[in-house]
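User: Can you predict the 3D structure for this chain?
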Amino acid sequence: MLLFGNIKGKKVVLMQGRFHYYEGYSAREITLPVMVMKLLGVKTIIISNASGGLNPNFTRGDLMVITDHINFIPDNPLRGHIDHKLGQRFTDMYNCYDNKLVDLAEQSARHLRLPLHRGVYAALPGPNLETKAEYRYLRSIGADAVGMSTAPEVIMARFLKMRVLGLSIITDLGIADALKPIGATQIITTARKDNALLVPGRALVERNSGGTYIRLLSGSTATEKPVTTGLRGDGGMVEILSGVQEGEDVITYIKENN
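Assistant: Here is the predicted structure, written as structure tokens:
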């Protein structure tokens, strides 16, 4: 489903869900929404995914901006008949994840004091998760995260001369020497729990069953203080009414019960 709207005066179109190769769709079918967006006049596309972390410096719930990908999905949206008026069959994948958009994402993350990694995304067909040997191999060839999407859409977007920003949320860890059992339910729970609602200029609001706390930054040291009262939501903004000592630095995270 496509959703249409405006964000700060900019017209946007959003995908509610996506098609996957493991669901039986061809790469051409997977990327049909990207083609539709292009024909609607979209010039820049943000593609997100849930992925497994291969980089030992990652942890569950981290965000990664994609700088490149390694594609193992055995189909290509440019295979077969294409409209040469829209692009070239032998599409150049140079700068497939736009460097300026990557820099902009990092600048925004620093402004918000939101940790953001850079990394290479490996796309596999799925639907099974990877073996220990496969995780080790993917890491050895330079991948920082692994998932089952994104690469076909990026290929189509570059064929159509669209700028691409790619983002991954790390929902589980595929560290070969520290592997633990994981299920789809845990992955989905992590994606939902750690997907923060951004409150511009004030704080990040996250909701989970872990209770309520405020994390305050003092220089480079993060401290946590429990809060039982003093939170008020007003038009999407959060105001701290009590429990914050004068002289503390910017509030970066607020967690509250569902």
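The chain has two domains: 2-195, 204-256. The two ends are 27 Å apart (CA to CA).
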